[in-house]
Design goal:
Layout: H1 5-15, H2 19-28, H3 33-50, E1 58-65, E2 71-79, H4 82-85, H5 88-104, H6 116-129, H7 136-154, E3 160-161, E4 164-168, H8 169-180, E5 185-193
Antiparallel strand pairs: 1-2, 2-5, 3-4
Helix pairs in contact: 1-2, 2-3, 3-8, 5-8, 6-7
Amino acid sequence: MEITASMIKELREQTGAGVLDCKKALETNGGDFQKAIAYLKEKGLAAAAKRADREVPEGVIGFYVHPGSRVAGLVEVNCETDFVARTSEFQQLARDLAMHVVAMAPKYLSPEDIPAEVVEEKRRAALSEIEGNKPAEVVEKIVQGKLEKFYNEVCLLRQAFIKDETMTVQDLVTQVAARVGENTRVRRFIRYEVGEEL
């Protein structure tokens, strides 16, 4: 099948990938758009994973103030270069994450940031809810499931993204990293609400 410029343009608009990458994806997948999109996504995510240990000294602070000015959020998102930090896509990511922080009120960035005493308290609470004599491995699976649910509720990177609940915030950050071609990391966030005790 002949790969036309209009096909490449359409794929590029859908994925944000480069012209040569779109052409190769279409050629590799016989002009099938869905397969080409999956190919580009897989390639981009694999490249993003390779860059995950690179330093991220640059970045931006995204902010969002909810109408009525009673709730606001700030999020620092880092990347490798100032060039990427100034792109509209990167700045949109920071704004979207600040809006997400306002809407979902996460308490921690990731499970690793939760104090050990909080995790232990949740573990004890989960154990106290289990009824009957169950085998130790079943009890541990139930407790671990309850802890995972807790992490998904209170950790920013584990929450379902408010604009697309089919992905987590971490998935969104990884996708943007794949598109901009640099390691991208959420460093910290804060949410303010009028009258709230810090």
